Amino acid sequence: MQKLKLLCLRHVRLDGCYAKLPTRLRWLCWLEFPLDSIPVDFSLEKLVVLEMQYSNLRQLCKRANFLPSLKILDVSHSYGLTEIIDFSLCPKLEELILVDCTSLIDVHESIGNLERLVYLNMTDCKNLRMLPKNMCMLKSLETLILSGCSNLGEFPVEMMKEMESLGVLATDGIPLRPERSSTILSSFPCSLVELSLKGCNLSDDVFPTDLSNLSYLRSLHLDGNPICNLPVFIQGLRRLDHLSFEDCNRLESLVGLPKVHQTTIIAGCISLRKIKYLPPERRSGMYMVHDNYNLVEWEHKYKIEPIDRVDVEIIKLLGLCNLESMPAVRMRHPFTDRVLKKVPVQVRLSFSLS
What we know:
This protein is mainly beta. It has helices spanning 157-161, 178-186, 312-317, and strands at residues 6-10, 27-31, 49-51, 72-74, 95-97, 119-121, 143-145, 168-170, 194-196, 219-221, 242-244, 253-257, 263-265, 274-277, 286-288, 297-298, 302-306, 346-350. 6% of the residues lie in helices and 18% in strands. The strands form 2 sheets. Strands 1-2-3-4-5-6-7-8-9-10-11-13-15 form a 13-stranded parallel beta sheet, with no helix packed on it. Helix 2 links the parallel strand 8 and strand 9. The protein is elongated. It starts with 5 loop residues before the first strand and ends with a strand. The mean pLDDT is 86.
């Protein structure tokens, strides 16, 4: 089978000489690869795609295996992998996927020489301690995903400044030290279109008031952070398609919201009481809600307030002249339909957008 170009195996162990395997392979998908490294007699010079998810690899190669044509390397969920290849051996690499390689501690410094690398995903590499400083040389990198790298010591601020092509950055679950948070946020490259900072322990006071360098940002995720109010810099983001505050359970108000063209997520914001828009904006796009049972004011939609604060003439028209004697009532929240505890009689004021 000397002309074979695609080989897909799963949980297969081969006996014998690997030199006898097809030498013109372009795509090798070997899930649950059983060895701790790729045999040196396995010819991979024509290989373009190498997939070895859920492998027993501890190191990719014991000795230098030149991979001159390799463009995609995926060894995700290789839990024993402790070191990755010297990247000078695969100079054409474009995508590197190391998801859930939980034993990986560092990345070979030669990664900075990968001039064609556009995608780097190291999600849940929980023991990753540091990234090479020369990663700033990755001028073609478009997507960098570090979510779940919870032991990453020093966040690579200077590295990000130099990544002029970076469009997607995800650092979910990496706690940012308060004293450095504002510096880090101000260092994001202006090329970003998607930024995910879920669960990074960001509070109101760490956000700079001005992040005008993020003028191209279309997707922003701040889920699970202890913020109480809308960060001021968001008011300057005019191209947003997606904005998410899911499970920000300390969030109390979103005052000054800019226009979000597609989706705003406020599900799980159990303390949220008020939503107001940045003039002249009105409610736009779709809102994903859940457990927002304290939301009593939503501009252009409704407002709930105690009846004794309502205009006296309206109260008379309703025939409600003796408010003091009216007992507390149970009511359903007008938006979440949740049954609330007993409260004094409330009035729901609805608004029309017409």
